[in-house]
Amino acid sequence: MAWMLLVIAGLLEIGWAIGLKYTEGFTRPLPTALTLLSMVASMGLLGLAAKTLPIGTAYGVWVGIGAVGAAILGIVLFQEPATAPRLFFMVLMVVAIVGLKATSGH
């Protein structure tokens, strides 16, 4: 169950990271409210997952999911560069996430 909470927390982190772009400096009320709600939910679920998972693993996976997801959506939604080195390091982050899961003992 902790891993499911952690994955959902990571997906919510992607949501609030992308949401920051749409808040336009927290000047747009609806995107701001949704971004803040996503932040709170993401952190709350991370906290719940960290009750049973090692904090280094939980935090690393949470950050990794958020970073890779935000980078992918940045490419898709905001035409950010999809260079070979950038994609390579995104793949390395996914490998690191899988590695943390595989070695966590949970």
UniProtKB/TrEMBL annotation:
GO cellular component, one term: plasma membrane
Record Pfam families: Multi_Drug_Res
Bilayer topology term: Multi-pass membrane protein
Parts of the chain that traverse the membrane: 33-50, 57-78, 84-103
Main location: membrane
Cited InterPro entries: EmrE-like, Small_drug/metabolite_transptr, Small_multidrug_res
UniProt keyword annotation of Cell membrane present: yes
GO molecular function: transmembrane transporter activity
Keyword Membrane attached: yes
Coiled-coil region: none
Domain of life: Bacteria
UniProt cross-references to PANTHER family, sorted A to Z: GUANIDINIUM EXPORTER, SMR FAMILY PROTON-DEPENDENT DRUG EFFLUX TRANSPORTER SUGE
Family according to the record: Belongs to the drug/metabolite transporter (DMT) superfamily. Small multidrug resistance (SMR) (TC 2.A.7.1) family.
Protein name (record): Quaternary ammonium compound-resistance protein SugE
Source species: Deinococcus arcticus
